[in-house]
Amino acid sequence: MDIALTGVSVDIAGKSLIRDLHLEADSGQVVGLVGPNGSGKSTALRCVYRALTPSAGAVYLDGTDVATLTLRENAQRVAALTQDNHTDLDFTVSEVVALGRTPHLRGNQPLSATEHALCREAMEQTDVLHLQDRSVLTLSGGERQRVFIARALVQQPKVLVLDEPTNHLDVRHQVELLSFLGKSGLTVLVAIHDLNLAAAACDRLGVLAGGEVVAAGAPVDVLTTDLVRRVFGVDATIVAHPRTGVPQLLYDLREKA
Ligand SMILES: Nc1ncnc2c1ncn2[C@@H]1O[C@H](COP(=O)(O)OP(=O)(O)OP(=O)(O)O)[C@@H](O)[C@H]1O
């Protein structure tokens, strides 16, 4: 399923958060949104998972304007991992993961054996199966993040929208999650701060600054010394990864001191 944001703007309380955004992800592509704090990444993602309605423009899934879908229909296609994923509810890990099936169930319908197997598989993939009977309230930040990723996976979406999914994750789980996304076959839109992980994990990047897309394309074309200085205000030496060839940034901390 492909995604297209065409001319998307969001104005709230007289403030322009994003302006005339054009972004596309082909079916099965991982597209990263990068940009400084407050540049509009989360706002753009919210328009895709329908937490916000654009003031102008539209979001299309396989050519269908998402505004014409019911929220249930949208949730059957798009799963989101948001930045404000917290819970006060004393649910076990397996109960939270099972909630991902909600868009596919009617009323109080219990989960089928296949759905239980799906939940188990998602917990295995995200390395939380050993925590399945624990209350989510007792988990560390990274463990909880992985539970919410499992919940998104059991939703069996075609599109996965992730806002800073590597927050709280240790390096092994960051690498595992991002490699999984590339192999998943899902169309992924992911906001990510770590430019090196973004370059390694994403087929394409959209760079946001001040609510506008200032560059878009393959990481090797987008991540230049000049762009990193202009958009992020830092000096970096950019090298090609010796094995994969993807651009990797080396930050010149000592030169600045
Ligand atoms: N509901 C709102 N009302 C007013 N301003 C808002 C609202 N939501 C977001 N903003 C502002 O819009 C701008 C873009 O916010 P957004 O959260 O999209 O940025 P971001 O790129 O995801 O930032 P970060 O990297 O810090 O998560 C920010 O200046 C933010 O303060």
TrEMBL record:
Keywords from the named record: ATP-binding, Nucleotide-binding, Transport
Domain ABC transporter: 3-235
Pfam family, one: ABC_tran
InterPro entries: AAA+_ATPase, ABC_transporter-like_ATP-bd, ABC_transporter-like_CS, P-loop_NTPase
Gene Ontology molecular functions: ATP binding; ATP hydrolysis activity
Annotated protein name in UniProt: ABC transporter ATP-binding protein
Protein's organism: Kibdelosporangium phytohabitans
